[in-house]
Amino acid sequence: MDCLEKVQPESEEPSTQMELKKGMSIFIDILRRADKNDDGKLSFDEFKSYFSDGVLTAEELKELFHTIDTHNTDNVDTDELCEYFSQHLSEYENVLAALEDLNMSVLKAMDKTKKDYQESTHLEQFVTRFLLKETTNQLHSLQSSLECAMETTAEQTRQEKQGPLKPEVLSIQLSGRRSNRRLQRNNSLSPNNPLLSLVNSGVYDEDCQWTIQVNRLQKLIDRLEQKEIRLEPVEEEVVESKSHILIVQRQLSVLEEELEEFRLALRQYMDCACAQTGCLHIAVQRLANESRFILYEFWEHNNVWKNHLQTNYSKTFQRGNVDFLETPETVTTMLVPASWWVLNNN
Prior knowledge:
By secondary structure, the chain is of the alpha+beta class. The chain is 55% helix and 12% strand. The chain is built from 14 helices and six strands. It has a four-stranded antiparallel beta sheet. Helix 2 packs across helix 3, helix 6 (122-162) runs parallel beside helix 11 (259-274) and helix 11 (259-274) packs antiparallel against helix 13 (312-324).
């Protein structure tokens, strides 16, 4: 696909005017945002600052820069950006074209709202506010899906670069049954997706063994918090610092009027988290007759969980909880021997 098309006037002589194909105007915006000194082109430093994604190395970015710089000027302009990316758009050609149409439609709607809202009736104003809210919700949902895809693809590339070596606990966990469940979670359109039951009933449907283990952990955590018992080992066991897995318990009290929005956000969060490297398992329970959810997250170790907290999908979930929750969430963490996990899965 050619990025640029010549527009012929009615006369037979060709025109020098160039018109961008639909959907390609995004690259004008990209160059404008990346061009720090406003000279109309990108130096390698400007290119690297904008296009660096934490996955490509500096050498790979340099190679990409010179590939795009077909004019060999040590700078990249809009034509070169369009020419390169237009060859690799595939299905995203339609996506960019749709985004361009969406942008124009939203601007027109905003302009009409600005002119007509004051003179509208109360019911008409309600409809306008409702449509604005639902449009925003749809865009946020789409953004969450895209952020999840970004995180997943970046993580897959990192794994490919690091090689096939994986921690022992994770390699033991990836049995056939577990792999099938993870694939189901990642397929948000599948009618067999177990997370769909969360949206409908608020209770995550897991196998019996997991339910038993989660209930036992819940009782143990409650008793520890109330200081009713004191645990002392019968025999002292010397273990390595990395021979534990991390269990995170999150208690979330949700506003009744925000339940449906919260369930949607929680489903998207769990989809992304389950695909994250180092996530062993996630389960959620809703207390009967209450709008309180208890989320259990099992991670290979503490550092993996801390990295997870910095991901876009985790931050999006945290931001949403500001509006969804009646009170701030309570987070409790616990380290347990990795051997317990191995024994439980054998």
